Amino acid sequence: MNTAIIVAAGSGERFRSQVPKQFLEIHGKPVIVHTIERFSAAPSIDSIVLVLAEDRVEEFEKRRSEFPKLTAVVAGGLSRAASVLNGLNAVSDECEIVAVHDGARPMVSIDEIERVVAKATESGAACLVAAVTDTIKSIRDGEIAATLDRDKLRRALTPQAFKTQILRRAFETADLNDAVTDESYLVEKLGHPVAFVEGSSRNLKITNPEDLIFAELLLAKTS
Fold first, then answer.
1. What's the pLDDT score for residue 17?
2. Looking at residue 154, what is its pLDDT?
3. Residues 6+ apart with CB under 8 A from 53
């Protein structure tokens, strides 16, 4: 049994909208619904735990019948890591693999989901990544300090998938007051190796208004 935790509890302050970005509509459906539908269609995913802001939980509890794989809707915490932990606490003890995904990434492909889950089943932990195409500089004291070798760099995407006991252990030993931006970071600190799976640049996270426009165009081509 494999479970996806879809995290969508953020306020989306950077988006500069009164409505959190994950609830803005693309082609007549909220972003979060597009994301749920991708995981609902993935053969490797048996159940979905949805993590939302507390004031959105009741709304999606009432909609659970629309998504047969949706088994729990829980309130998020004060940080992303705390929200993921709340979702993890709702995952069945019978679950083998947990895949954690950002609710604001509606363009994830079923192929990406399947390959990440398969790699985590094999290795225990897997992170979806994408190539860095820009030239990356490090800075110091107001100046360019160095140019980094982008061939050795990757952008972390989601989903990131882990054997359930490994992710639980990573949270048990973690300081959630740290700047925890993804679950791979926690598993890395645990000392467990994290395999990477090459993903697509199309799997964008909607962060700014222009990202929503780009997602609309991509979803129009795939619908």
1. 62
2. 96
3. 9, 10, 11, 20, 75, 76
Q: Report, in angstroms and rounded to the nearest whole number, the Rg of the chain calculated over CA atoms.
A: 17
pLDDT in tens, 13-47: 655 566 778 889 998 999 999 999 999 999 999 99
pTM: 0.94
**How many whole angstroms from its chain centre is CA 92?**
19
Q: How many helices (H) and strands (E) are present in the chain, helices listed first?
A: 7, 11
The pLDDT-based confidence of 164 (bands split at 50, 70, 90) is: very high
List residues bridging with 143 in a β-sheet.
Answer: 140
Closest to 198 measured CA to CA, from 123, 109, 124: 109
CA 70 to chain centre: 16
Residue ranges of alpha helices (H) inside the chain are 31-40, 54-61, 80-89, 110-123, 164-172, 183-190, 209-222
Please choose, from the candidates 214, 217, 206, 218, the residue with its C-alpha nearest in 3D space to the C-alpha of residue 15: 206
Question: 105 and 157 in contact (C-beta within 8 Å)?
Answer: yes
Residue closest to 116 by CA, chosen among 206, 21, 183: 183
* Nearest to 98, CA basis, from 78, 71, 134: 71
